[in-house]
Amino acid sequence: MKRDQLAWMWLVLAGLLEIVWATTMKLSNGFTVLGPTLVTIVLLIVSFGLLALSFRVLPAGTGYAVFTGIGAVGTVIVGNILFDEVLTGMKLVFIGTLLIGVIGLKQVTGGETA
């Protein structure tokens, strides 16, 4: 596997973990419930570690935008499914815009490295 492919894999995994730690943070009730609090802290550290590894190869601006985009879109979806958070038509439009931006950044970054 090429170095940039590995960096993108780390970045996507970091973003997916962001969805999980954001969800467990919600479940921690402001860090007052021990189990979800500990899971949040561990996953946050792993997620940021993977993000840092991806930054060795990818530009920081692109990497961070993709990381937060994955986390934001995924967390909105999980919030709707698990916590019955309202998902309006306009929210869907803006989530779609975020998703298009993340995909676009991946496309234009190509062989660009840090």
From TrEMBL:
It is a multi-pass membrane protein. Keywords: Cell membrane, Membrane, Transmembrane, Transmembrane helix. SUPFAM superfamilies: Multidrug resistance efflux transporter EmrE (SSF103481). It is found in: Cell membrane. Pfam families: Multi_Drug_Res. The chain crosses the membrane at residues 38-57, 64-83, 89-108. InterPro entries: EmrE-like, Small_drug/metabolite_transptr, Small_multidrug_res. Belongs to the drug/metabolite transporter (DMT) superfamily. Small multidrug resistance (SMR) (TC 2.A.7.1) family. This is Multidrug efflux SMR transporter. It comes from Exiguobacterium alkaliphilum.
